[in-house]
Amino acid sequence: MIPACFSHPSTVSSSGSSHHHHHHQVPQNLITCIYQTQICKSPTYLTLTWSKNLFSHSLTIYAADSFSLTISLHPSTFSSFFRSRPGSGSKSIYLTQQHYQRIKLHWDFTRAQFTQNSAEPDSGFYIAISCNVRLEFFLGDLQEEFVKRSGLIMSRQVAEHALLSRREHVFGRKSYMSRAHFLGSKHEIGIECSDGGVLKVKVDGETSLVIKRLAWKFRGHERIYVDGIEVEFFWDVFNWINNNGSAAAAGTGNGHGVFIFQVGEGGVWPEMVGPEKRLMKKNLSSLGSASAPSASLSPSPSCSSVLQWAEESSDGGRSSCSSSTRSCGSNGGFSLLLYAWRKD
To answer: Residue 106 has what pLDDT?
Structure first.
């Protein structure tokens, strides 16, 4: 039986130093989004990973086989003390497989506004990519201002790039929150777990689904509706149940639940890179999963089964778009994948 889905009072560390170390390493929030776009006339799957913990805040921009860049935003904990602010800048990069092609990345976070502990800004920022004085990718709410200041020519694909999927690592004890767009509308997604193994799925504060007896229903699939749009919901909390005994007794309790919200035929699972890859490797290692591949998108038996299930339910069964030329995810589908990490 599960006394509570997330929390185990007995798992509080008896060592002040180990507890201190734990909070140094575990991110407060980590979000990875993959966009389908074109850069220098080449179809590209662009991955953005936002990472925020107690001492740092960064953005990693990555395109498989092309380039990777990490931008340090600002030290989140001490920003008010030092009055530091995220900055602006630009950088020219030669594409790995196209040595004759050079792109330029532009960014500005000096006015960025963030919601609570989110690593991803809500407004007052931009990220742009240009090639041969043409603006080819833009994210943020300052596009008109940027184009006027930079003098770049707007290309058609700026308006056509699509968000295919969003993967977020959230940390808590009994409640986890995320914000995601479903076909143009932004919604607040909540996962709540109460004593006795009852799981609630909330959308914009309203309960959309209640799952009871998680000890027996630790994996499953249901349909919910968001503004009249059908959304496939998959869950897998095997790790929570599996770690309820031995891990809790050992004082680790770092199991994670996996939740997928899928619209249409689903999106594309982005490859794990940078801080996200390090997070998975560290936590799986602490659970004794050293044999798991560090770059895998299916880092545990639990995660593997629910991802495969979601992929097989869609036409085409897509997984990772690790190649920048792979043709997939162009059907307007979208997937939100949540890793819910128990924080004791």
So the answer is: 94
